[in-house]
Amino acid sequence: MAYAAWKASFCTRTVSQAELDSINQRGRVAFDRRYPGWAVTGPRSVDEIFDAVTSSDDVEVTDMASVLLPRDATGHWDLGRDLVQGSAYEADLHKYQHVALDDMQCATTGGCEPGGMRSAMICLASDGYTCAPGQGVYDMWNEQLSPAEIDIVLAIEQRIRDERARRLATPPG
What we know:
By secondary structure, the chain is mainly alpha-helical. Helices cover 62% and strands 0% of the residues. Helix 4 (59-68) runs antiparallel to helix 6 and helix 6 (93-109) crosses helix 9. It is globular, with a radius of gyration of 16 Å.
């Protein structure tokens, strides 16, 4: 019963900022231990994050990139800029990039169904989305994004996959 109450508060974003920071910090420390060359507890440039995501299909790298990328327009990749430039969607490019990363994770790890762990995490860290207990990730996105925005997300996701495939097929050196 206590878990159900916690989960409901988690999904309705009543978790404190301190709790969210603690969750993210623990993830960063664990990630640093596993990937010492990445040092995510220190500042990272958006270019370094982009390079990591497009150079590896490691689930943890994609997950950590989503955490480390700014959730506002202050710093984002240029990836997908041409899709939104000059349109009403331009200011939300960072949001579409996050959704693309999250969608890639849903496809890889699951947990995006109603009641799934990834649904709860995305709900908690959402970019102004509203979500309710019992909603899955796709329910949330379908309510909040227009068909044109979903097309932008899918195009960004495909570009990430294409760039990964290109980099992974190219021998080092």
